[in-house]
Amino acid sequence: MSKIYINGISSVSPQSEDIFEEENPLVYKENTLTALDQDYKSIINSMMLRRMSKAVKMGLYCSKKALLEAEVEIPDAILVGTGQGCMQDTEKFMTNMLESEEGLLSPTSFIQSTHNTVGGQIALDLKCKGYNMTFTQNSVSFESALLDAILQMEDESTQNILVGGVDETSQEFTGFQRLDAQIKKENISNLDLYKSESSGTIISESAAFFSLAPEKKASSYAEFKDVEIINSIEISGLNSKIELFLKRNNTSVSEIDAVILGRNGDARFDHYYEELQNGMFLAKCQLGFKHLVGENNAVSSYAFWLASKILKEKQIPEIFKLNTLNCSAPGKVLIYNQYLGRNHGLILLQSL
Amino acid sequence: MKGIAVTGMGIISAIGRDIEETHLSLKYGKNGISFPEILPTKHKDLPVGEIKLSNSELSELLNLPEDHSYTRAALLGIYAIKELLENSAYDQFPEDTGFISGTSIGGIDMTEKHFYDYKNNPEKRKYIQAQHPGYTTEKIAEYFGLNGMITTISTACSSSANAIMMGAQMIESGKLMRVIVGGSDCLTKFTLNGFNSLKILSTKNSRPFDNARDGLNLGEAAGYLMLEAEDCINGKTVLGRVSGYGNANDAFHQTASSENGEGAFQAISKALKKANLSTTDIDFINAHGTGTKNNDLSESVALKRIFGDKVPYFSSTKGFTGHTLGAAGAVEAIFSLLAIQKGEMFPNLNFSTEMLETGLGPVTGFQKKNINTMLSNSFGFGGNCTSLIFQRNE
Amino acid sequence: MSDLHTELKKSIIEQLNLEDMEVSEIENDEHLFGDGLGLDSIDALELIVLLEKDYGIKLSDPNQGKEIFNSINTMADFIEKNRTR
Description:
The structure holds three protein chains of three kinds.
Chain A: E1 5-12, E2 32-33, H1 46-49, H2 54-69, E3 77-81, H3 87-99, H4 108-111, H5 117-126, E4 131-135, H6 141-153, E5 161-167, H7 171-179, E6 203-204, E7 206-213, E8 222-230, H8 235-248, E9 258-261, H9 271-277, E10 285-288, H10 290-293, H11 300-313, E11 332-339, E12 342-350
Helix pairs in contact in A: 2-5
Chain B: E1 4-13, H1 19-27, E2 48-49, H2 55-61, H3 72-86, E3 98-102, H4 108-114, H5 133-144, E4 150-153, H6 159-172, E5 178-185, H7 189-197, E6 218-219, E7 221-228, H8 230-233, E8 240-249, H9 262-275, E9 284-286, H10 293-307, E10 313-315, H11 318-321, H12 328-342, E11 344-345, E12 367-368, E13 373-380, E14 384-391
Parallel strand pairs in B: 2-6, 3-4, 3-5, 9-10, 9-13
Antiparallel strand pairs in B: 1-7, 1-8, 5-7, 8-14, 11-12, 13-14
Chain C: H1 3-15, H2 41-55, H3 65-68, H4 72-82
Keywords (chain B): Transferase
Family (chain B): Belongs to the thiolase-like superfamily. Beta-ketoacyl-ACP synthases family.
Protein name (chain B): Beta-ketoacyl-[acyl-carrier-protein] synthase family protein
């Protein structure tokens, strides 16, 4: 099987993409974090842009930037993971329909409510007639897209794959997550997320896209080794599952240099991470990212962005560290993420 | 042996609650189109392919406790997979069984039902997570104790066709030994009003490929297949094989298909190439054929581009079931496997006149015919086009 | 320019999210679709809704829209002749 290299990356999140260079991360005092606005007009046609929800804008923007960096015009496949899809348009059509009691409705928001709107719009913008897939499985939506990337790469004619994750917030539906106790009741500062001992987390929107290829370039970031999806697992079974995953990739815990964990400050489910932090990865450099960019169903794509960046730049900014261990030459990075104790994902990346 | 073995299937739709009843409806031309009775919509004059079982009736049939939080798509999915399981060699699915489900709207039926309840009624909040398609897949997985590789594909009307394709690739690559693939979608006010706002719903029974066709009927269904690696077969009956698949994007318009049917053309070409077949090997086509002006013309053009003046027998079964959106690909995969097994071509209902632009006419009556190779098309919003090829197990 | 023409331009800008556009930038005889304003078939569906909502005109066949939505002038003419509100 051919190798898979990460040749272009781009992310939009509540933090600046220059977070490795900037001293201070952005601080939010509310529990819903929106993604930073970008100069969308600079790379998206304004007649297309006028109807786009945040998810579509973020997804298309990141896609074009990642492809540009990898010097790819049209990829052979477009793979998108989005757990909640185009919520803003879904909400718009839903509320119009309910308020008008199924009256006269304008179709645009319905058209754009479909989960594959982001993938379809990227294809439309790039005029890409290739394979196009959208996965929507809660917190393993992006992992599912990565898994498909491995499958598509098995076809020898595949030269380039665009893969990414994106999720947006919306007024009512994100409000429902609050009622469902997914969002903390008391407002906290994002930087205090790991001190919090209450239920729920901080919810956000983000996108991160990547240009993958079987060919390495001088500018490549890292190698994407493997991904695994586990729908449901007891904490006691986690260690052996990770060991098996690493073994399958001819490596072991001792060779892992850093582990990126999806801790989100939800006292009900963070013990999955604590088990690893105090156990098999005790002596490893441990990183978190949700205190900076919040939680959403596609946010493991941000972790993938972070790992790519760390492996290329050979440095780990202090702000991401969960413990005091250093890692001077990161070579192998493992990402572990879950949401509400379900939909666990493992991703392995390696330096070049 | 070429292709991935299909070793089980289960289905529920407006024309039957199991494989047998479904087959009889197809054979005797009995459609499942009616006016909405279960769906609490104002549009009682729009024909739909509705399964005449309420959620509580389905729950009772499945022996679920009253306080459960299954969506309708989950109930239908479980119903179909139970049939698959009962006809399989397993008492319960082995632990390493994967599950890939396709759906367009998942559990949005619960959101539209309880939208105004969540704020003041904590009891209903169990449905908040139900909105997102992954939830429905998880609930089905939970029911059958599936804990491993589970995911959802949502590419509108090609969702479950794509789930079948991915499942086949997972087995081919050795990542899974066994996987349940297919999809489930229920009727909702959201989709009925959405398609109505696009002005593509017919007020009559849909007439795929007819010159006077004026829109589609929505439907609901769940259909699932079991795909297994060669090592798992051990003398089990193989119902047929997934030997080709292809997905391509029309990259033309958010909802409409291109005039030259480019996406469909690419998807069919890829599927033929994957199966290593030529156009003359296709015995029968289960067309996407929704009954809208745009889809049927675009698909017909694509068929002519691929097959020239030798377009094989083809039929759209949407006149039986309505367009079951994300479930359609799996439903029609099952129809395709039935056609191969039984040696039967199922008719394209309500057709009378060829469309002027192409002059193509589908199969209009039930016919016996030896079928070795079937092509099944599924096209969705966002330009998503998928073609699957099923072959007789030799 | 009649009030109806201005009213139409305002609602088109609003309904179709033409955020950067001013009423004065749309000519009465300019093509709304294709090489003119650049509207597409999704906009056409929105305009059908606009006719029904604001002027009580129901188009039974979406294909009728092609001629009616040629320009602001043709739209205004059609509305004058057929409006029920």
